[in-house]
Write a structure and sequence with these properties.
The complex is a heterodimer of chains A (275) and B (270). Chain A is an alpha/beta fold. Chain A is built from nine helices and twelve strands. In chain A, strands 5-6-7-3-8-9 form a six-stranded mixed β-sheet, sandwiched between helices. In chain A, strand 10 and strand 11 form a beta hairpin. In chain A, helix 3 packs across helix 4. The longest helix of chain A is centred in the middle third of the chain and has 18 residues. The N and C termini of chain A lie far apart (46 Å). By secondary structure, chain B is mainly alpha-helical. Chain B is globular, with a radius of gyration of 18 Å. Classes of the chains: A alpha/beta (275), B mainly alpha (270). Bound molecules: adenosine-5'-diphosphate and magnesium ion. Magnesium ion (MG) binds next to helix 1 of chain A.
């Protein structure tokens, strides 16, 4: 079977910066891939490339064996930058409905079938009641669930979730991971799930794709999350400590993921979350 | 009051313009671009006075300038259209030019007030026909891009990934706003386009969260405010634009103070 996503000596550049240099890896059908790496490592850029928004400048990038093109309906996407206008009094159903055939010209119209599909998908992620609620009254967690449902609509074969855990508290993060895993297992969807913290993802993921320093390493947690590999990706000396089923990635005595989170809180572009 | 032709003309013209303004304004408010709409109307003022200077009807100058400005703003969208300061400076400059053109314009005072504050009671049949045609074009253009426009407004990152031509949509939308502003300025004047283009849709969005119910309510509110405004003006002899502006403000603040409701059923009206 052809790989779902396959990079072959691919170089991805954006705004003159090389985000990935000569990267090669292949993601198999049905895999749940945790996409990790420090801020600016290129997680978002890679997903945009997979969507066909940013073709590689060298090498090849194939999705289901083809060069990706914008608007591919087999890919579900939850962007990291989620512009939510602060006072948006649009209810969940219309919000999702707008995206359903949003690329077509004309006046929006939801058929019975569309409506049914939206409601079913909302139910699958436990968000049925959000259909009638305006966005401005949803919590960060509820919005996230709505967006997750939206990414699942239309039965995609590949799901790109870019930092879907941002602005969720620990309990909701667990729920979100669990929901994604369950739905994707049931439907045989391949998932790329980017996150800051490895530990929450450990029970769900099949393999990790670790990005950093222009490189990408795909493999099992045991293969990738090791001192030599991460030292290369972080370009600094990294220690990996395993304790009680958790993995701590440390640099000079401090946890890089937590340090990252801290940086992230300040440089966050996500307008959708509430403080 | 309907015995006078100037009154029936006023009602017809205001009716056409109010519906167009309420519908286009709904998207303007949704996109958070009301300031851009405001700026377009001021730029239109320079166009209108400039047209007067070279002997054209003000409407054509208004149309030409707002359309050009709308397209330029759309094309530069990332760099300019959401930058309040750049827009503010350009609109002041436009108003300044408008004044300069007026300076050389013979029928200075009456024209200036008519452009700035509208003069719906002076509308004739020809103007009604022009407004009807422009209004139909505006609504048809909006209907053509409505679906991707909503998608691009609500979720720009996702819309881009789904292949929505973002730049084209934002440019086309501002061109549509330019048309609506030009029509609206004929009724309430360039300074008061907010009364029909922002007040009613903002009020509508306070009370309903459905797309179609919001659009219809917005158009209905604009229509009611325009017509009642004219009626009040007829009986009180106050300026029409003042009456419409007042009703628009009242409508908005009443809706603002209503308890926020939301439809709890997904399958009630869309
Ligand atoms: N539009 C852009 N123009 C120029 N550089 C960009 C742009 N978007 C991202 N970058 C750069 O590309 C690198 C990768 O960014 P990104 O993919 O967002 O990383 P991540 O999602 O892993 O935090 C960063 O160094 C970032 O500054
Ligand atoms: Mg990112």
């Amino acid at each position: 079977m052809t790989a779902v996503v396959e990079l072959d000596h691919a170089t991805i550049k954006i705004g003159g910066r090389t985000v990935l240099a000569d990267a090669s890896f292949a993601i198999k059908h049905g895999e749940f891939i945790g996409v990790l790496g420090p801020n600016g490592a290129g997680k978002t850029t890679l997903m945009r490339s997979i969507l066909g928004l940013l073709p590689p400048s060298a090498g090849s990038l194939r999705v289901f064996g083809h060069t990706p093109r914008c608007g591919d309906r087999t890919i579900g996407y939850l962007p990291q930058l989620r512009t939510v206008l602060p006072d948006l009094r649009v209810r969940g159903l219309d919000f999702i409905g707008a995206s359903l055939h949003g690329e077509r010209w004309g006046v929006p119209h939801l058929s019975h079938h569309d409506r049914h599909m939206i409601e079913q998908t909302l139910a699958a992620v436990g968000a049925r009641e959000l259909a009638g609620r305006p966005l401005s009254q949803m919590s960060g967690g509820e919005r996230q669930r709505l967006l997750l449902a939206q990414a699942l609509i239309g039965n995609p074969k590949l799901l790109l979730l870019d930092e879907p855990l941002i602005s969720l508290d620990a309990r909701h993060q667990e729920v979100a991971i669990e929901v994604v895993r369950r739905v994707c297992r049931e439907r045989g969807i391949t998932v790329l799930f980017s996150a800051h913290e490895l530990n929450q993802l450990l029970p769900a993921i099949d393999r990790v794709l670790y990005l950093g320093n222009g490189q990408a390493v795909l493999g099992t947690v045991d293969e990738v999350v090791t001192a030599p590999v991460l030292s290369r990706l972080y370009r600094t000396e990294i220690e990996v400590i395993r304790a009680g089923g958790h993995i701590f990635v440390m640099s000079h005595g401090s946890d890089v993921e937590r340090a990252d989170d801290h940086v992230h809180e300040h440089g966050d572009h996500d307008h959708g979350h509430h403080h | 009051m309907f015995a006078y032709e100037f009154m029936t003309n006023a009602f017809a013209a205001a009716g056409i313009v109010a519906v167009v303004s309420g519908v286009v304004g709904y998207f303007l408010v949704m996109r958070g671009q009301t300031f851009a709409g405001h700026a377009l109307s001021h730029i239109g003022f320079a166009g209108a006075t400039g047209a007067g200077l070279i002997g054209l009807a003000p409407l054509w100058g208004l149309l030409g300038f707002t359309l050009a400005a709308g397209i330029v703003m759309g094309a530069l969208s990332d760099r300019i259209s959401n930058r309040d300061i750049a827009i503010g400076i350009v609109l002041s400059l436009a108003l300044g030019f408008g004044l300069l053109f007026l300076h050389y314009y013979t029928s200075f005072a009456t024209q200036a007030t008519a452009l700035l504050f509208g003069n719906v009671l002076a509308v004739d049949r020809g103007m009604i026909a022009t407004l009807a045609v422009l209004g139909a074009i505006t609504i048809a253009a909006l209907a053509a891009i409505m679906r991707p426009l909503i998608f691009a407004t609500l979720q720009p990152e996702l819309a881009e990934a789904k292949g929505v031509p973002m730049r084209f949509i934002s440019t086309a939308f501002l061109a549509i706003v330019a048309l609506a502003v030009s029509e609206c300025a004929q009724i309430v004047g360039v300074l008061l386009v907010f009364t029909l283009m922002v007040g009613p849709p903002a009020a509508a969005q306070r009370v309903t969260t459905g797309l179609w119910s919001g659009l219809i309510l917005s158009a209905a509110l604009a229509l009611a405010e325009a017509w009642f405004g004219i009626a009040i003006a007829y009986y009180t002899d106050w300026p029409v634009s003042f009456c419409i502006a007042m009703l628009s403000a009242v409508g908005y603040f009443v809706c603002l103070s209503l308890p926020q409701r939301h439809l709890s059923r997904a399958h009630s009206s869309t």
